[in-house]
Amino acid sequence: MSETTASPVTPTTPDPRRWKALAFIAMAQLLVNLDTTIVNIALPSAQADLGISDGNRQWIVTAYALTFGGLLLLGGRIADLWGRRRTFLTGLIGFAAASVLGGAAGDQILLFAARALQGAFGALLAPAALSLLAVLFTDHQERGKAFGLYAAISGSGAAIGLLLGGVLTEYLDWRWTLYVLAPVALLAAAGAAAVIREPAGARNRSPLDLPGAVLSTLGLAGLVYGVTRAESHGWDDATTIALLAGAVIVLVLFVALQAKVKAPLLPLRVVTDRNRGGAFLSLGLAIIGLFGLFLFLTYYLQVVKGYSAALTGVAFLPLTVGLMAGSTQIGARLLPRVPPRLIMGPGFLLAALGLLLLTQLEADSAYALFVLPGQLLFGLGLGTAMIPAISLATIGVRPGDAGVASAMVNTAQQIGGAIGTALLNTIAAGVTAAYVDAHAGEEAALSAGMVDGFTTAFWWSVGILLVAAVVVLAAVDARAPGGPEAGPRDAEASAPAPSGTAEPAQQV
């Protein structure tokens, strides 16, 4: 596969085709986010068709989550080392092939394997997509617009997945929730091959840190599997505790190794910077609210309100509208003019206000009074905050570190989502069980108990988003890059690159 279609642009010369490239980069990220929910709607149909037991059905989701979450850091470094364009195209083509394989699966083993392959290629694709964006758009004004469009399209992927998954499952077949991903991936690959050119000197040619790759993959995969297992077996399950403890130990060893090796998989300078650290942490916390909203509103609408799968997807459209409006009309417009923390903090607070509305839900609540405005406010707030957060997480790093910095954005969201979903689901299930026990024999006790569990989980989500806002206000410097008070470039971006790298030290 050819690395470029034309002579590469220099790091200081904007690529004239960067806006066309953005369309295909955003399409690819939409694909990854789409896959997180489109298959979930089809789970009951796939389980019945392939004869999957209740104990094994979780692997349709878990197989993807394990490889995607576990391989993200490695995928980011591969993009830095091998080339982001090449990694991006490989991820797209592999994702398309894995999607077809999953759609054609005749038994559960093949379906699980295909989902694992989707996750592995997604772990190449996601950091390569974001790092391409980071190195192609360096001007603050353009960066805000580019990240706004990227976040709007990719952020709405999960909601679109619910709608598309519901329609395909209800009117065609569950297999089409996988088949439909292949043409989207191939279209993005064809467009990307034609228009994307990676800036010269942006690669990191240091040798791959294989011990670090093994430790990070084992640690992250163990963490994802541990919290996933906690949903079904409980947090006090011996195997769950062993998995989580082992994952923490392995990740501590990984960090210790990264501090010593000459060419680390994850240079600690990427995460120890105050602004980037605050961005990573706040993103990981905020995504818990998004995952909680999808999980509990889906159950509320389908189980309590009796919506069909397709109608449930339609009911999530206000969230998509809010995300797109918040990212493109608020976050992107403010980013070049306002310090990031003054956008992120209020954004998270507005998202918390949207969830606060959902804490008032009852079994007979009107959709237009609570669900619709709650989604709009949440989407507006999260969309507004995501733009400066993602920009802050990737700005100022050396070009050769752009891939791994982008991988950290995805890792923070993936780990935050996994831990948050498991924690909130445990809380909601406990509240529901207690309510049903206390109201045994009463009519509609189960529905009322479920709603009580959902609203309790929403209260926790509100608190978590408030913590995200506090993290931003406490950790992110008001003079961070991106606003009118931006200070000088990060010291690491202007310091000489370590020996063994080919890229010049500069800001992306």
From TrEMBL:
InterPro entries: MFS (IPR011701), MFS_dom (IPR020846), MFS_trans_sf (IPR036259), Sugar_transporter_CS (IPR005829)
Subcellular location: Cell membrane
Gene3D superfamilies for the chain: MFS general substrate transporter like domains, Multidrug resistance protein D
Membrane-crossing residue ranges in chain numbering: 21-43, 58-75, 87-105, 117-137, 149-168, 174-196, 208-227, 239-257, 278-301, 307-330, 342-361, 367-395, 415-436, 456-476
Domain named Major facilitator superfamily (MFS) profile: residues: 21-480
Coarse class of the protein's main subcellular location: membrane
Pfam families assigned: MFS_1
Mode of membrane association: Multi-pass membrane protein
Keyword terms: Antibiotic resistance, Cell membrane, Membrane, Transmembrane, Transmembrane helix, Transport
PROSITE patterns for the chain: MFS, SUGAR_TRANSPORT_1
Disordered as annotated region, ranges: 481-508
Name by which UniProt lists this protein: MFS transporter
Organism: Streptomyces rubradiris (Streptomyces achromogenes subsp. rubradiris)
